[in-house]
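Researcher: Let's continue the batch. This sequence belongs to HTH hxlR-type domain-containing protein, and it's 98 residues. Same format as the previous ones, please.
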Amino acid sequence: MAAMDLFGRRWALRILWELRAGPLGARTLLARCEGLSSSVLYQRLRELTANGIIAPSADGYELTRLGAALSHALQPLNEWAITWAQAQELNDRNPAEA
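Model: Same format as before. Here are the structure tokens for HTH hxlR-type domain-containing protein:
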């Protein structure tokens, strides 16, 4: 499976993002990802596990070494997203200046 196909699936990147700080159980992931159904969560967990990105742990699921490397690769995207969100907030407050 191509990486972009895997990561482009609904909720895949969000699940990985939530796991960046450490292992989480399925219930915690569901709570953190408002709108995510349990069936989609378990499908993504199976796919990410099968591709070596995450692994089951005593505490739920955690990033593998490969998954952690992806987390580092996504950090610049997160920094851009923060800048974008701040710009959107400014535009919402001052639409004439946009």
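Researcher: Any comment?
Model: The longest helix spans residues 65-93.
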